[in-house]
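Sanity check. The docking grid for zinc ion depends on where the pocket ends up, so I'm generating a full predicted complex first rather than guessing from homology. Inputs follow.
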Amino acid sequence: MTQAATKTRGGMLKRSICAVFGHRYIIERVLNRGARKVGCTRCLAKWAMHDETRSFLPWDEEFEEMYATGGILAEGVDAVMAKGDTQC
Ligand SMILES: [Zn+2]
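Predicted complex below; grid placement will be based on this.
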């Protein structure tokens, strides 16, 4: 369990609160169908969540790169955002 422990300094107290009470998850960004970036409002940790593979991984630079505008996995974003949006 060394995930992101060395990355985020200064959040240690909050992080231990999360360890006791659990993280306060929010969806930060919908990446594409079945994938989203999840964050904790308390300790500010970030994860990548993927339904199909049931992945829940610490968000790192690699993810940021892949899902950044122009990244290889970025193209699905618009489709998801447009889903359920009936305007136009
Ligand atoms: Zn947390």
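Relevant for the grid: Strands lie at 25-32, 35-40, 46-50, 55-58.
Also worth noting: DSSP finds three helices and four strands in the chain.
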